[in-house]
Amino acid sequence: MATSFNDLPQELCNRIIQFFRYDRRTLLRLCLTSVRFVDEAQSFLYAKLTFNIMTSFKLILARASKLLSTLTVHNPSLAKYVKAFSYDIWLPEDHPGVYEKLRHAIRLMINVTWLEINTTIPHSPQGFFDGWTFQLKHFRCKFGSSDRKTIYKMLSTQLSLQSVYIDKFDHDFPSDCCLNIKRLCVEDWRSIEQILPGRSIVVLEILRLQESQLVELFNRSVPPSIKIQLGNLTHLTLKTNTFYTDLKTLAPYLTLLMILRIIGKDNQRYGVAKYAQNIAGKPEILCKLTNLKIFVWSLDVSLDSHRITEEEADELSDMLWELVELWFKEMPKLEEVYILKLDWEDPDNEDFYSHWIKGVGPTTVEAKTVLGRKSFYTR
Question: What is this structure's pTM?
Answer without folding.
Answer: 0.81
